[in-house]
Amino acid sequence: MDIEILQQPDSAIARVTLSPGEEAIAEAGAMIAMNGFVQATTTLRQGKAGGLAGGFKRMLAGESFFLSKFQSPHHEAEIFLAPKFLGDLIAYEMTRAGLVVQASSYLASSANVDIDLGFQGFKSLFSGESIFWLDLSGQGQVLLSSFGAIYEIPVDGEYIVDTGHIVAFEKSLIFEITKPPGSNWVSAWLGGEGLVCRFKGRGRLFCQTHNASAFGRLIGSQMPAKSK
């Protein structure tokens, strides 16, 4: 699977090229355009994180129940994929350690990448973010999306990130969800800072420049009230 990312960083779109017989899996509704050789089907997948159980797990994480599968048996396939939000894309090559992805940031992957559901902890409820993540393992490439630009932080030791700005991180990193340094729980809550994620270890962390939940609250507060 070859991925070329265009129109970065605010309106990114991915051109995915598949060799004959190669498959790609994508979030339902991600396809923008494709050539006439592509066969597109809806799937629940089989094996790890597949079937009905896998579909319900993805729904809990805020993802689609079904996934889209793209394949061209005899010709080279070309597919254009784009996320729901205006923002950036990055192609990540899976490593043995695996990758943890904020649920809304998964866009597509090679067929040999397994997608499972992980639990982030009830503390994340108080941060306004999802309590679930996607746990990715296997081999191949993953296409990640962000709200705003996406950037990589090489962590070697300790790093702290606002929970709403996390896109993904390598599983070689350990983490805890906690209050911002120097504040107590009351000031963290009343000050609107919410919670942060404290990473430790060595690995790559991917962040986004904007917080989708905060943006939604801001836009929602400006909307006119519904007339009865």
Written overview of the protein:
Strands 9, 11, 12, 14, 15, 16 and 17 form a seven-stranded antiparallel β-sheet that branches. A six-stranded antiparallel β-sheet has the order 5-6-3-10-13-8, with no helix packed on it. It has a four-stranded antiparallel β-sheet with strand order 1-2-7-4, with no helix packed on it. The chain contains three helices and 17 strands. Helix content is 12%, strand content 46%. The chain is mainly β. Strand 1 and strand 2 (13-18) form a beta hairpin. The chain has helices spanning 51-60, 185-190, 212-222; strands at residues 2-6, 13-18, 23-27, 31-34, 39-43, 67-71, 77-81, 89-93, 99-102, 106-110, 113-119, 132-138, 141-145, 150-162, 166-170, 173-178, 196-208. The protein has a single domain (2-222), classed as Double-stranded beta-helix (4-Layer Sandwich), CATH 3.60.160.10. Residues 121-129 have low confidence and may be disordered.
